[in-house]
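> forwarded from #structure-qc
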């Protein structure tokens, strides 16, 4: 294994990694990803509220109808000529009218309560729509900013990748594949020197048997962090 070649490769690859991280950790990316959920939630909320408002309005109009019917009937009773009815009938009429007035009173109170519910539901609906619109705006804004960054960095990444591909052709395939596995697992750097009898990556001290192995073979896989330790 040509350690100098591998280290040079790792250094070159680090330039790619830095650009990839810049993209991955972009605030704009985080924000526009977060906005996807906000948009979805606000949309669900406003859909549910729309349904709820529809039901409330229907219930309200049923109440209103019952109220209007009562008012109409009451008016009819009040306007009835009393001269040609008996005393008993008159008493009955008075009691029915009284019952209807009580009914109207109850219906009025219910309608008021319903109107309040409808209003608060519509208020929540407006708030949810606003949240939806704001989140959409924010999503578009940050997605565009991220895409601008991506358009700037992607060509740089691609050209660096093409450069190291040429180096890869001359590398030991076993080490290269180990390298790529660990890089995919977000381990970096992958090749590290031994430092004071410890792994230069995770600082875990190496048992003497492993140190012997390292001396013998020139490299050793760290049992703790899986980096490849080289003897310098
Ligand atoms: Zn280690």
């Amino acid at each position: 294994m040509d350690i100098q070649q591998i280290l040079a490769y790792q250094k070159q690859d680090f330039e790619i990694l830095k650009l990839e991280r810049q993209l991955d950790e972009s605030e704009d990316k985080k924000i526009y990803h977060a906005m996807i959920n906000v948009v979805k939630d606000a949309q669900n909320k406003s859909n549910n509220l729309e349904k709820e408002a529809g039901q409330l309005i229907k219930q309200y109009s049923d109440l209103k109808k019952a109220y209007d019917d009562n008012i109409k009937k009451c008016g009819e009773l009040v306007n009835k000529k009393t001269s040609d009815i008996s005393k008993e009938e008159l008493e009955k009429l008075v009691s029915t009218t009284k019952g209807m007035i009580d009914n109207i009173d109850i219906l009025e109170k219910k309608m008021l309560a319903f109107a309040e519910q409808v209003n608060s539901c519509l208020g929540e609906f407006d708030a949810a729509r606003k949240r939806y619109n704001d989140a959409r705006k924010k999503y578009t804004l940050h997605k565009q900013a991220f895409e601008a960054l991506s358009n700037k960095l992607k060509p740089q990444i691609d050209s660096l990748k093409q450069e190291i591909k040429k180096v890869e052709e001359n590398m030991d395939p076993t080490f290269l594949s180990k390298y790529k596995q660990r890089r995919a697992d977000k381990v970096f750097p992958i090749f590290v020197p031994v430092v004071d009898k410890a792994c230069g990556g995770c600082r875990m001290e190496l048992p003497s048997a492993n140190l012997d192995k390292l001396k013998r073979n020139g490299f050793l896989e760290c049992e703790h962090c899986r980096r490849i330790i080289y003897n310098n």
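QC bot note: Residues 87-168 form the longest helix (82 residues). The pocket of zinc ion is lined by residues 199, 201-202, 204, 222, 224-225, 227 (CB under 6 Å).
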